[in-house]
Write a structure and sequence with these properties.
By secondary structure, this protein is of the alpha/beta class. It is 40% helix and 23% strand. The chain has a 7-stranded mixed β-sheet with strand order 13-16-17-12-11-19-20, sandwiched between helices. Strands 8-7-6-9-10-22 form a 6-stranded mixed β-sheet, sandwiched between helices. Helix 9 (260-272) links the parallel strand 11 and strand 12 (282-288). Helix 2 (58-74) packs antiparallel against helix 4, helix 2 (58-74) crosses helix 6 (180-191) and helix 4 runs parallel beside helix 5. It is globular. The model is unreliable at 1-12 (pLDDT under 50).
Length: 471
């Protein structure tokens, strides 16, 4: 069991919260809880940390981030086991998350060294021929990072890495369900030379989060999570910068000229990876009518081959959802969809927190299961007759991060890229493809700002202009 207390709480008054495995309920660690009244002191300490972070050379920031990446590589097994223990992600999936986090840190290190600004051509404007100058990128100050449970290491790195690269301090509040991976990250960053106060990890309840968000010393809040929480943060934050990833409801279109075998493999993985707890996971699969029966048959066959259960077992493809209440809520939505006429083609049974991979068809397009983010191992199949109909169905949601389309037609792919309302359109990939260096965010109500290392770095820094008039 891992026990940690990075937040500055006196041991004699500390209150600890257990971290439990979503698979079998065993206690896998504990963290000390902060109190709302202690946040002001943490912000003061982070303000001193921000001065240290700003003073670090770009080379020093890059060296720290690269050093942390190397240390994570060396401790890959420990990190992966921690992810599996606290989140229920399978051990094979956890290893991949660790490798992605290493890459995200290395991308952050590269950004620290290169994204310093540009020369401004003042002499391109008449009357400014005797001026020269540039803009540089400077840190905002203190970034508050609030992260979710589904990628407890890499989604933390996506906020912490670019923030450090830009010379900021970070106050990090990881998910209460999966805080241990964040603690391990803080440990390796410290070992890599990150000065005290640059990163503060704290744990607490809603009052602690509200105190952080509302504090005027925080210059930016970077949040990944649900829409209602995002709204609450926006109301509480006041005049500060906000960056939010608020979820998605991903469609994937299968055209009649698609490589069906490739589409099936990608969509099964995209729908059930991490038990479907993935904001860009495949949710609504729209299939051209001439290929619908073929796709349906192969998709169900491949889904039936998935092994669900113990996430520590190397043969397991899908582990548990994060909590029993999450399973309960999702199964209630499935029941409502069935009552409205949907047919269950596979799954919809549970053992503990493991909900078997579930496939439905004839789901009402006005019901919650179709319109809202599922965030669980559920995929819905729906035939369409025309490309226009498919695009209209794909766009019929308020939450749109990624979409996918499978087609051999370049023209169709380009039309989809232009007409689908999403932050990213993946062609001949499912919606859940993501490279950690690309801009990541949504359209409509699904996002504010962009993540992806370079883009988060730019969100977390600000340009300063220097103009010199020659004498």
């Amino acid at each position: 069991m891992r026990e940690t207390m990075l937040a500055p709480i006196a041991p004699e008054v500390a209150v600890f919260r257990d971290v439990v495995s979503p698979y079998d309920g065993r206690v896998v660690g504990a963290v000390a809880l902060a109190r709302a009244e202690s946040v002001e002191g943490m912000v003061a300490a982070a303000r001193a940390g921000a001065r240290q972070a700003r003073a670090l050379s770009r080379h020093a920031r890059g060296k720290i981030l690269d050093g942390a990446a190397s240390k994570i590589e060396e401790r890959c097994t420990e990190f992966a086991r921690t992810i599996t223990a606290e989140s229920g992600k399978t051990i094979r999936q956890a290893r991949k998350e660790v490798l992605r986090a290493v890459n995200t840190l290395r991308l952050s290190a590269a950004e620290a060294r290169r994204n310093a600004g540009e020369v401004i051509p003042f002499d391109s404007y008449e009357g400014s021929e005797d001026r020269t100058g540039w803009y540089c990128r400077e840190p905002l100050g203190i970034i508050a990072a609030i992260t979710p449970y589904n990628d407890p290491l890499n989604l933390v790195v996506h906020k912490v890495g670019p923030a450090i690269a830009g010379g900021n301090a970070v106050i990090l509040k990881p998910s209460a369900l999966t805080p241990l991976s964040a603690e391990l990250l803080a440990e390796v960053l410290t070992e890599a030379g990150l000065p005290p106060g640059v990163l503060t990890v704290l744990h607490g309840d809603r009052d602690v989060a509200e105190a952080i968000v509302a504090n005027p010393g925080i210059r930016m809040v970077s949040f990944t999570g649900g829409f209602s929480t995002g709204e609450a943060i926006a109301r509480t934050a006041g005049l500060k910068k906000l960056s939010m990833d608020l979820g998605g409801n991903a469609p994937v279109i299968i055209m009649d000229d698609a490589d069906i075998d490739a589409a099936v493999e990608a969509c099964v993985s995209g729908a059930f990876w991490a038990a479907g707890q993935n904001c860009v996971g495949v949710q609504r699969i729209l299939v051209a009518e001439p290929r619908y029966r073929e796709f349906r048959r192969l998709f169900l066959h491949r889904t039936a081959q998935l092994v669900s259960g113990d996430p520590d077992d190397e043969t397991t493809d899908m582990g548990p959802m994060i909590t029993a209440s999450a399973v309960d809520q999702l199964m209630a939505k499935i029941d409502a969809a069935v009552a409205a006429g949907a047919a269950v083609l596979a799954g919809n049974t549970r053992v503990g927190n493991v909900l078997q991979p579930t496939v439905l068809e004839n789901v009402s397009t006005s019901g919650a299961l179709w319109l809202e983010e599922v965030f669980g191992p559920v995929a819905m199949l729906q035939p369409f007759s025309t490309f226009e109909e498919a695009v209209d169905m794909a766009n019929a949601t308020d939450f749109s991060l990624h979409a996918g389309i499978f087609t051999r037609s370049l023209d169709t792919a380009l039309q989809a890229a232009s007409r689908i309302e999403a932050g990213g359109v993946m062609v001949n990939d499912s919606s859940d493809y993501r490279f950690d260096g690309m801009p990541f965010g949504g359209s409509k109500y699904g996002s504010m700002g962009r993540e992806g290392v370079r883009f988060a770095y730019e969100e977390m820094t600000q340009p300063k202009v220097v103009c010199i008039k020659r004498q």
